[in-house]
Amino acid sequence: MSTKPGFPNGFGRRVLTEVDSTNAEAARIAKTLSGPEWILALNQTASRGRRGRPWRFPKGNFAATLVLHPKETPDIVALRSFVASLALFDAFVSAGVQPQALALKWPNDVLLNGGKVAGILLESIGAGQGVSHLAIGIGVNLADAPAQAEVEAGAVRPVALLSEAGVSISPEEFLDLLASAYARLEEQFTTFGFAPIREGWLARAARLGEVITARTATSETSGTFETVDEHGNLVLKTPKTRVAIAAADVFF
Fold first, then answer.
1. How many domains, the chain?
2. CB count in 10 Å sphere of residue 226
3. Any domain includes 1
4. Which of 58, 60, 72, 87 could form a disulfide linkage to 181, CB 3.0–4.6 angstroms apart?
5. By residue range, what is the domain housing residue 142?
6. 33 and 120 in one domain?
7. DSSP string for residues in 27-96
8. Same domain assignment for residues 94 and 193
9. Are residues 225 and 126 in the same domain?
10. Which tops the pLDDT comparison, 100 or 156?
11. What is the pLDDT of residue 153?
12. CB–CB of 46/21 below 8 Å?
């Protein structure tokens, strides 16, 4: 673990040449950490996304995990996916991306010119009614993106920051921008709760007010994307009713 000038106070910074996955490393070292810690891998040999899906990791892309020891109940802890989404948005803007080119896709993707440039994976280990540690895994297509054929049918097309926005940045440089943005928003979250984070997220939400489809393992719901409620649920207005969805894959 190391710190560097400009890195947020109280956050550790660990850069690994290679690891299986930063979330797996987070699980291994979480008990040894005295405070929040960022783990950045310059190469991942066993990258994965949501629902255990494999995730290709080209050289020059970003893979990092923030390890936290949160004190809130699990439902509140899970809202940090929105904190991380906003931090990614701000980091991209700091890197030189025009804000109007970016949007946040529920529950945890960042879009650039309508294509997926970043994703978030939250994993936690519980202790009784609490969470002993939270791993916020973040992957960003800085240099390269998977081909459309490599992602799930109907999924948003993958894009890379370099080709889509003309921004060239190293993983280490991007980590510094992201860590600073996250530290500021984490303080806001722990001080004022979810409300301002929710408001900021909705102001940047993709397809708000439009018809989208949410798919779970057992159901599919299409409706107008009305809002995200105070619990982080996606709220769709269908011809018959309003539906609050806690977890799903969203398709446009």
1. 2
2. 16
3. no
4. 87
5. 12-202
6. yes
7. HHHGGG-SS-EEEEES-BSS-B-GGG-B----TT-EEEEEEE---S-HHHHTTHHHHHHHHHHHHHHHHT
8. yes
9. no
10. 100
11. 72
12. yes
